[in-house]
Predict the structure.
Amino acid sequence: MNEVAWLDVTIMKCPNCGRYYAEASWYAIDMASDIECGECGYTFNSKRSAVDRVLIEFELNHEEKAKNVRINMHYPVKNSKET
């Protein structure tokens, strides 16, 4: 049987130019960090700009290397603009 590892990821969107970013949820949601867009230079809050949050599952092979990746589940994303 192959082993698995998980990563909780938040997808956010720059409110200025619309470019998407993916970041670890502990950084984006829990810390509500500000991010500078690499496209337009606008600084925005990752929590307020979150559009999706997913649990990514990595299937590892017998050499403990990533073999397959899939979305295990979607978490509800509160409209962070309200919080």
Summary: Residues 3-72 form one domain. The chain has a mean pLDDT of 93. The CA atoms of residues 46 and 52 lie 11 Å apart.
